[in-house]
Design brief:
The protein has 210 residues and is of the alpha/beta class. Strand 2, helix 5 and strand 3 form a beta-alpha-beta unit. The protein is built from nine helices and seven strands. It has a seven-stranded mixed sheet. It has one domain: Rossmann fold (3-Layer(aba) Sandwich). The radius of gyration is 16 Å and the shape is globular.
């Protein structure tokens, strides 16, 4: 794994939630609710759920709260992010694994749901494509991959911070990746659909491998 980027995210984990709250404002819970609702998972079921690039764990905690019997796994390459995520898991039911998104440590067809929230745009070069291929590999034939990504912020101050972060650690084509159509997903998955959160701050790409 990429040591320099790991160190950056280990440090950034101390400020990550504050940055997200600043960016999302009063809509900070909206994306998690939208993602969970879009999964269409039954509350009483026991699905297997993998959150790739889970960061400080807010998304996988939301899924664990929604489906108490689910197997929930948060996966990230930053030890600092995972440490923060464990602090949010009051029930201690979520498993956290440190690893590379481009080399998932799971057998093929292992999960009913694979999600990646506001992280794919930060992956560089071939790594992003490899991560998508890995998501397709580990999701079950009847499962789905849900990818949440930012819309470029409208507020000038927040947009400046957003672009500064992309400049520091995002991929060289991060801005273009966020603006483009569904072609990167359609080149890998059989079925791809697009939807937007009510506020318009984020977009959700739902994928199935067929």
């Amino acid at each position: 794994m990429r040591t320099g980027r790991q160190k950056y995210y280990d440090i950034f984990s101390c400020f990550y939630d504050s940055f997200i709250n600043l960016h999302a404002g009063r809509h900070r819970d909206e994306t998690r609710r939208f993602l969970v609702d879009s999964s269409r998972l039954e509350k009483s079921g026991s699905p297997s759920i993998l959150d790739i690039c889970c960061g400080t764990g807010s998304v996988i905690v939301a899924f664990a709260d929604h489906c108490a019997a689910a197997l929930t796994i948060g996966y990230d390459f930053s030890a600092g992010m995972l440490q923060r995520a464990r602090q949010k898991d009051a029930a201690g039911t979520i498993r956290y694994i440190q690893g590379d998104a481009a080399q998932l440590a799971f057998r093929s067809d292992s999960f009913d749901l694979v999600c990646c929230s506001h992280a794919l745009y930060e992956l560089r070069g071939r790594v992003r494509n490899d991560a998508l291929l890995e998501m397709k590999r580990v999701v079950s034939p009847d499962g789905q991959v849900l990818i949440m990504e930012h819309e470029v912020p409208g507020n000038p101050a927040i947009r400046a911070l957003f672009h500064l972060r992309m400049l520091m650690m995002g991929s060289a084509d991060a801005g273009e990746f966020l603006k483009q159509d569904l072609s990167p997903y359609r080149s890998i998955f059989t079925e791809v659909t697009l939807s937007h959160t009510p506020s318009g701050k984020s977009k959700l790409i739902a994928c199935r491998k067929g």
